[in-house]
Amino acid sequence: QVRLVESGGGLVQPGGSLTLSCAASGIDFRTNLMAWYRQAPGRQREMVARITASGRTDHGVFVKGRFTVSRSNTNDTLYLQMNSLKPEDSAVYYCNAWNPSGPGDGYWGQGTQVTVSS
User: Fold this and answer.
1) Distances, alpha carbon 26 to alpha carbons 10, 15, 102, in Å
2) In order along the chain (118 residues), what is the average pLDDT of each group of 10 residues?
3) Is 14 helix (H, G, I), strand (E, B) or coil?
4) Spatial CA neighbour of 35 closest among 19, 55, 50
């Protein structure tokens, strides 16, 4: 059974930082393309950042220079370090694992809420 469990969300003031984690099980983590998506109320889900099996990263233009995606193939965990948070970063953040042998859109976690507000 595939499980992706996000943690680390919460309420933070503008300019603050949070680190999200996604613990994976039931997949060969090291071979998966891992990604963070987010969805705010009334908006479409959008890709925040992704990291390939080899460690190459890609970040959405709206988070470049503020967020950093990383992974630990030892701990089967995906991370998202978020700095200089803005109110518009408020959303539910989802972890995604994709591999050519799996579902077309990959596996998804249940999400973790991030709220940036003073």
Assistant:
1) 27, 36, 12
2) 97 98 97 97 96 96 94 97 97 96 93 97
3) coil
4) 50
